[in-house]
Specification:
The complex is a heterodimer of chains A (about 180) and B (about 425).
Chain A: H1 3-12, H2 17-35, H3 40-57, H4 71-89, H5 109-116, H6 119-127, H7 131-142, H8 147-154, H9 158-178
Chain B: H1 2-26, H2 31-74, H3 78-102, H4 106-121, E1 147-155, E2 158-166, E3 171-174, E4 180-184, E5 190-194, H5 200-205, H6 211-221, E6 231-233, E7 247-251, H7 255-266, E8 269-274, E9 285-291, E10 294-300, E11 306-311, E12 318-324, E13 329-337, E14 346-348, E15 357-359, E16 365-367, H8 368-376, E17 382-389, E18 395-402, H9 410-421, E19 425-426
Antiparallel strand pairs in B: 1-2, 2-8, 3-4, 4-5, 5-7, 6-7, 9-10, 10-19, 11-12, 12-13, 13-18, 14-15, 15-16, 17-18
The chains are: A mainly alpha (about 180), B alpha+beta (about 425).
């Protein structure tokens, strides 16, 4: 069932909201977990807040096209809730930009990444970059959004999205080399 | 070489992307959490539904009552109603006057308490922070803890020195040719400062399309992924920085950064020195050196109050050194390649970057300062460095040292050294 159809059903019967919930709870939890530096408890809190606050506003949500999906709305809600949390706790970005335009000649580095670093280690490094860059990585790699879609969602230009994406990937490479 | 580099980088990118996908795939909420939250959502929906039903019932009651009042109005005897109203008003006035005369204000206190209680129950919801809501003007930015940076360039027989300051939490990365500085904020916004030899009029005319600067940024950020979208200042005179030729650009996505950039721009000062020295056949130092199997002749014209202290042969990393009379200032010209090939020592980075790393032939990595001490010995108190370009486009380093701790600010003796460096010619 498409999101447009689900939304239509929710407007007739509120209990149908659980269809959205069941469809997207995993994605929102993953996103929150990723953005909150793999903190499970905080990710659960944010996920709860996202779905409860969206429930409050569900009647105001309007579909603009047949292929409309509520997912970007949920991501942005999650993002805003996380920013609010960071503002309350004075969270600081732990990794500043680290840029080197030189790369080691080590042929085994690719293998080294596969063997030596766990997926979670890499995820933690990515999540520590500035919030918007981390969003770009998540939406591009995991959600497979196009640069144009990410640009529209995050309200930043497409070229900035591209720049952030490639810069973070390069930074992760360099940071892994320093580990 | 570049193709091989790109292929390797793409391969690494793919592995990192695959790892990220795998790591996100592995994240899943507990079933218990999912079930509990679903129950909570359903409870909320039911409560809301009940509340709405109650609201409808109340509305009906109100409507019914309103209808009966309407009926009453129709049957009202206006004469008795008016008399009754007057009596009620009279009693009210007497009661209030009596309370005030007695000084009993308990009635008003109760009213206030009710208001207070209501206020305590008000829940103020914080709205999500938007960067657009932040208003910072450049005048309000405290730059006392900002970092400093200087850049010197020889343009039209003038030594032009640019001093600027930038926020301490930002990172500054110069390009290898030293002409473009890029400052990155934690938000990923870039600010570029470019010194060019281009004609100013041309710069002004092409302020939004100048290919020279655009090319520089393309090279820095990778031409496939980035393009400049905005130009900030392109001015030779009439602004805060009014000497020399320079272009300042920015790339930004939010206003606070732009305001910070305004503040950075206001910190730029420019000073110029006329260069009268020139090197050539009658230079004081005229020496051969071999670099990457190619022979180069260095001609260094030593100013009047400087002496030649050493001229080295091909086997030494040193080309020559000169000393200023009545001073402890010594300049060493050293064959340390800027690029990464063809030498015992491998140097990564840029002459103007902070915390450069030198990779030695045994694989050890040391800072540039440690390298200087290793090379120049215990008298290495303070140092500066610059790069000179060879005819094939590659560069070597020039290290200059001040054998005294009396002048501990690098910028001070850079000012002394730079005119000499600009007399060097690679023949």
């Amino acid at each position: 069932m498409s999101d447009t159809e689900i939304l239509q059903k929710i407007k007739e019967d509120k209990s149908k909201y659980v269809l959205f919930y069941r469809k997207y709870v995993n994605k929102i939890f993953k996103y929150s977990y990723y953005k909150l530096n793999c903190n499970k408890q905080d990710a659960e809190d944010v996920t709860s807040e996202v779905f409860l606050s969206t429930l409050e506003k569900i009647e105001n949500i309007k579909t603009e096209a047949d292929n409309w999906t509520v997912l970007p709305y949920l991501y942005i809600t999650a993002k805003n809730i996380i920013i609010k949390r960071w503002n309350k706790t004075n969270r600081t970005v732990e990794i500043s930009e680290y840029i080197e335009d030189n790369f080691s000649d080590n042929e085994d580095f690719t293998k080294e990444i596969l063997d030596q670093y766990s997926a979670e280690e890499i995820l933690k490094i990515v999540a520590k970059f500035d919030s918007e860059s981390a969003d770009v990585i998540f939406l591009k790699i995991y959600e497979d959004y196009t640069f144009a879609q990410i640009s529209e969602l995050l309200h930043i230009s497409e070229s900035a999205v591209k720049m952030r994406y490639y810069r973070i990937i390069a930074n992760v490479t360099n940071l892994l080399k320093k580990v | 070489m570049q193709k091989r580099f790109d292929e390797k980088q793409n391969k690494i990118n793919q592995v990192i992307e695959a790892k990220i996908i795998q790591s996100i795939d592995d994240i899943n909420p507990d079933d218990q959490f999912v079930n509990n939250l679903e129950k909570k959502i359903m409870d909320n929906i039911n409560v809301k539904s009940t509340f709405n039903d109650d609201e409808k019932i109340n509305k009906n009651i109100y409507n019914n009552n309103f209808l009966s009042l309407n009926d009453m109005f129709k049957n009202l005897n206006w004469k008795y109603a008016f008399s009754g109203l007057l009596v009620v008003l009279l009693i009210s006035v007497i009661t209030i006057t009596f309370i005030r005369i007695r000084g009993d204000n308990s009635v008003w206190t109760n009213v206030n308490q009710t208001v207070d209680q209501q206020e305590e129950n008000v829940v103020i919801e914080e709205s999500p922070i938007s960067y657009d809501d932040l208003v910072i003007t450049s005048k309000e930015i405290d730059i006392s803890d900002w970092k400093s940076y200087s850049l010197e360039r020889k343009i039209d027989n003038q030594l032009i020195r640019y001093d600027l300051r930038y926020p301490s939490q930002w990172s500054l990365t110069p390009t290898n040719n030293g002409n473009t500085l890029t400052i990155l904020s934690s938000q990923g916004d870039a600010w570029g400062f470019d010194v060019t030899q281009s004609d100013w009029t041309e710069c002004a005319n092409k302020s939004r399309t100048t290919t020279t600067i655009n090319d520089a940024f393309y090279r820095y950020f990778d031409d496939k992924t980035y393009e400049l979208t905005n130009w900030f200042v392109c001015s030779q005179s009439g602004s805060t920085v009014d000497q020399g030729k320079y272009i300042i650009t920015y790339y930004s996505t939010n206003n606070p950064v732009l305001n910070t950039l305004d503040a950075i721009t206001n910190t730029i000062t420019v000073s110029t020195t006329e260069l009268t020295q020139s090197a050539g056949d009658d230079a004081d130092i005229y020496t051969d050196t071999v670099y990457k199997n190619q022979k180069y002749n260095f001609a260094i014209n030593v100013p009047e109050n400087w002496n030649v202290t050493e001229i080295s042969d091909d086997n030494s990393p040193m080309i020559a050194s000169i000393k200023k009379q009545d001073s402890n200032l010594v300049i060493y010209f050293i064959k340390v390649p800027v690029d990464r090939g063809g030498a015992v020592e491998e140097y990564q980075g840029d002459p103007y970057a902070e915390n450069q790393i030198v990779t030695l032939s045994n694989g050890d990595k040391i800072t540039f300062e440690e390298y200087g001490r290793k090379l120049l010995g215990k008298y290495f108190f303070d140092f500066g460095r610059s790069a000179i370009t060879l005819s094939d486009g590659s560069k070597i380093w020039v290290i200059y040292e001040y054998r005294s701790n009396l002048v501990d600010h690098v910028g001070d003796f850079q000012e002394l050294v730079a005119p000499v460096l600009n007399t060097i010619q690679i023949l």
